[in-house]
Write a structure and sequence with these properties.
By secondary structure, this protein is of the alpha/beta class. Helix content is 35%, strand content 14%. Bound molecules: ligand NAX and potassium ion. The site of potassium ion has 11 residues, from strand 3 and strand 4.
Length: 214
């Protein structure tokens, strides 16, 4: 049976992996990106033009790393930031520098309709408030466009613990849960918004004695 977790449990396990085992955060981000790349490769998505929507936290960092891998595969990729890059976490800046070295630069605002596949790397387990109004409008508009969306870890706008829509959410065709799926993906609207749920190992370690609450 699939083991679901709360965001607190996921954070505990990520901290355990990075602190007790000294596995660098960049390794987890790279593995997250490879995991999503594999899901994209195994699916029957139209890969003519991929738009990666990038947030300011580690979910965004996963998205940039994925965009870089897809770009290196020779695919057409646009990286579009959602939010002010000046407020982004260090992991985002780091991944952006790597992407630029590989020839992938952030795009100006692109037309969602031009993308044949959208990658949702805006928010993951860090979402703890309703989406800002502008983003709510963007998500609602995107839901009306007929292109596939792959969500990294959680669909943006879905509360990862309760499955509630935080103002608006981006409906995914497939959600690639990293490590363990978050419990919100099977509660309330979470189930509908996550589409097909694929769980991927990214090397997050779990102590034998860990007591899951679910
Ligand atoms: N902890 C780690 O080092 C790892 C995390 N991973 C990825 O990182 C994600 C979690 O990353 P973060 O904790 O950085 O969080 P997110 O990237 O989900 O969100 C970024 C930040 O946005 C802010 N925020 C939350 N709700 C908001 C709102 N409504 N409006 C505006 N800002 C808001 C919060 O301060 C949050 O930290 C996971 O879902 C997963 O994709 C993986 O890359 C593996 C490694
Ligand atoms: K996401």
């Amino acid at each position: 049976m699939t083991q679901f977790v709360t965001t607190t449990e996921m954070l505990t396990l990520e901290d355990y992996t990075m602190n007790d085992f000294e596995i660098p955060q960049e390794v987890l981000i790279e593995r997250a990106a490879i995991a999503v790349q594999e899901v994209i490769g195994a699916g029957s998505f139209n890969l003519s033009h991929i738009l990666v929507l990038v947030g300011l936290g580690n979910n965004g960092a996963d998205g940039i790393a994925l965009g870089r891998l897809l770009h290196q595969q020779g695919l057409s990729v646009a990286l579009q930031f959602v939010g002010n890059l000046n407020r982004a976490k260090a992991s985002v800046h780091k991944q952006l520098e790597i992407a630029k070295h590989c020839g992938l630069h952030p795009s100006e605002k692109s037309d969602f309709k031009e993308a044949t596949l959208i990658v949702d790397a805006i928010f993951g387990t860090g979402l703890n408030n309703p989406l800002p109004e502008g983003l709510q409008k963007m998500m609602k508009a995107a839901n009306h466009i007929d292109n596939d969306v792959i969500a990294i870890d959680t669909p943006t706008g879905i509360n990862p613990n309760t499955g509630e829509v935080m103002g608006a959410a981006l409906k995914a065709h497939t959600t690639v849960a990293l490590g363990y799926p978050k419990i919100g993906l099977r509660k309330n609207q979470g189930r509908k918004y996550c589409g097909d749920l694929v769980v991927k190992d990214i090397g997050v370690l779990t102590p034998d004695t860990f007591a899951f609450s679910l």
